Amino acid sequence: MTRCDRTEAWAALLGHYEAHGRGLDLREAFARDPGRFAAFSLQAPEVFADLSKNLVDTATLRFLLDLARECGLEARRDAMLRGEVANATEGRAVLHTALRAPRGAAPFGDEVHGVLDAMLAYAEKVRADGFTDVVNIGIGGSDLGPQMVVPALDAYGRRGLNLHFVSNVDGHDIEPVLRGLDPAKTLFIVASKTFTTQETMANATVARQWFTDRGGRDVARHFAATTTNVKAAAEFGISTTFGFWDWVGGRYSMWSAIGLPIAIAIGEANFRALLAGAHAMDRHFAEAPLARNLPALLGLIDVWYRNFHRFGSRSVAPYHQGLKRLPAYLQQLEMESNGKQVDVEGRSLPYGTSPVVWGEPGTNGQHAYFQMLHQGTDVIPVEFIAVKTPSHPHADLHAKLLANCLAQSQALMLGKDSDAARAEKAPTASATLDRDVLARHRTFPGNRPSTTFVLDALTPRSLGALIAMYEHRVFTSGAVWGINSFDQWGVELGKALCNDLLPRLASGNAAGLDGSTAGLLARLRG
Ligand code: F6P
Predict the structure, then answer these.
(1) Distances (CA, A) of 525 to 202, 299, 360, 522
(2) pLDDT > 90 in the chain, percent
(3) 86: which of 73, 221, 328, 435 lies 20 to 30 Å off by Cα?
(4) pLDDT tens digits, residue range 92-124?
């Protein structure tokens, strides 16, 4: 496959960027074209997307679609969905889509539905069995999905059943959780694809000790494991296990047995609705023409911003408090997937890959870092997520929330010129400052891009579709960049060095260490 920067479309995009892209002004574009909103917005399953406030015109999208074709996006997508080895460095297929396909509609259907049925039956049993607390012990992909989804679907949660998440190998994480628990009414889920992850094994050991120290005997009833390594879970003493497969990447695993805490929180029917929403988005990604394919368009605009505009980051602003962990979830999904410096053939890449992804729920972010988004020196595309109908009764709060969401994307785009700033009444405290100087401080450049997603309501189905949209978007930009979006070798070096340093913390042996690490080691031991 031709590398993306050697395609004809890339050259065309470079020319287009210089001639039109760099200078595109959103305010002029809307003034010129009253149909811009309709032309650049799209209804995908459960997710409406307004792309019209992005720095694109029809020519940009045409060239980006050419780029997708030249890079073989559709062929790569189809190969992944068929179950071909899409993760070459680990020799694995990539089939998280099979986890949410109806019976018989995707590879490994019997295995998938066998585990799903058993896991959901167990979740229902836990919900009926007098447990008050469920503690998920896992990290990365074995934590972030359930930790994001459970609060997002709080409206569907079972009252009186509290879900906790322990991930960090830091006693400050597990200790406050254990403090409030009754061992007789607590279920621990040890979630680890490999069942070897240091943090998870250490926390699971602490939890088991805590349980037995307080007279707990029935480990089989109070501990369950979700893992591909059922043997290691059994060796740890856990007999209730739900498996999954090596073709499910950690950050794509919330649809598998790793979703057990979600299923316990929201119940079988709602978990199945979450899967159905994701499947609807899978079909959209597989079947919609690229020009009307939401994940594909988003991934292509990401490439446009990263490689032509050279934007290094993207901010996510969910205007729904339930989605407070979505930015953290997306950080792993996108940055662990596409934070790569070589292509699938191992060639160093001369172009940027994953941007930094970050954010906080609106309106909190507005009162923290939105200053920089509006007036800072870097342009950072923002992604707003608005939910039309809330699941609480406070209509007044919701109206204010939505008005804030609309106002922010509007302000980013419209800005405020110095004439408008000069015409404003100056605050009395700045009376001594020259009027023009003050006006310059109060000027907003505008023309800052954003995307707004609208969900009718945050339901299991719409959340499933939203997350699947993000997965396929990450696949799209990764496919164009020609990288393996499904391995994560970048996390290994630190793990190996940690294994070397752990005994040194006890012994103080600094032989062979660099000066800084040796100095810090001594200080931490002293
Ligand atoms: O941080 C690396 C990583 O392998 C992630 O990809 C994964 O989600 C996480 O560790 C947890 O791994 P496991 O589920 O095997 O404990």
Answers:
(1) 21, 47, 36, 5
(2) 96
(3) 328
(4) 999 999 999 999 999 999 999 999 999 999 999
Asked whether the beta carbons of 466 and 445 are under 8 A apart, the reply is no
Ligand 1 pocket check for 353: Cβ under 6 Å: no
pTM of the model: 0.97
| Pocket-testing residue among 90, 96, 139, ligand 1, by greatest number of atoms within 8 A of Cβ | 139
Q: Is the CB of 491 under 6 A from ligand 1?
A: yes
> Residue 516 C-alpha to ligand 1 middle, in angstroms?
28
Does the beta carbon of 375 lie inside 6 Å of ligand 1? no
Mean pLDDT of the chain: 97
**The token pair that represents 506 in the structure block:** 């006890």
What tokens appear for 4 in the block? Answer: 């993306």
β-strand 223-227 against 313-319: which pairing, if any?
unpaired
**Whole-number Å distance between alpha carbons of 305 and 413:** 16
Sign of CA dihedral 411, 384, 305, 36: negative
Quick one: 326 exposed, middle or buried, by C-beta within 10 A (0-12, 13-18, 19+)?
buried
| 425, 21 Cβ separation under 8 angstroms | no
pLDDT in tens, 255-295: 999 999 999 999 999 999 999 999 999 999 999 999 999 99
Cβ partners under 8 Å of residue 24, min gap 6: 55, 56, 57, 60
The 10 Å CB-count burial string (b at 16+, else e) for 49-79 is bbbbbbbbbeebbebbbbbbebbbbbebbee
Q: How sure is the predictor about 209, in pLDDT bands with cuts at 50, 70 and 90?
A: very high
Task: Annotate 41-104 with DSSP letters as a single string.
Answer: EEEETTEEEE-TTSS--HHHHHHHHHHHHHTTHHHHHHHHHHT-EEEGGGTEE--GGGGGSPTT
Confidence label for 426 from pLDDT (cuts 50, 70 and 90):
confident
Cβ of 142 below 6 Å from ligand 1: yes
Note the Cα 237 to chain centre separation in Å: 33
429 band by pLDDT with thresholds 50, 70 and 90: low
Catalytic residues: 336, 367, 495
User: Does pLDDT of 433 surpass 90?
Assistant: no
Q: How far is CA 146 from the centre of its chain?
A: 12
Q: What is the residue-wise DSSP string for 278-321?
A: HHHHHHHHHHS-GGG-HHHHHHHHHHIIIIIS---EEEEEEESG
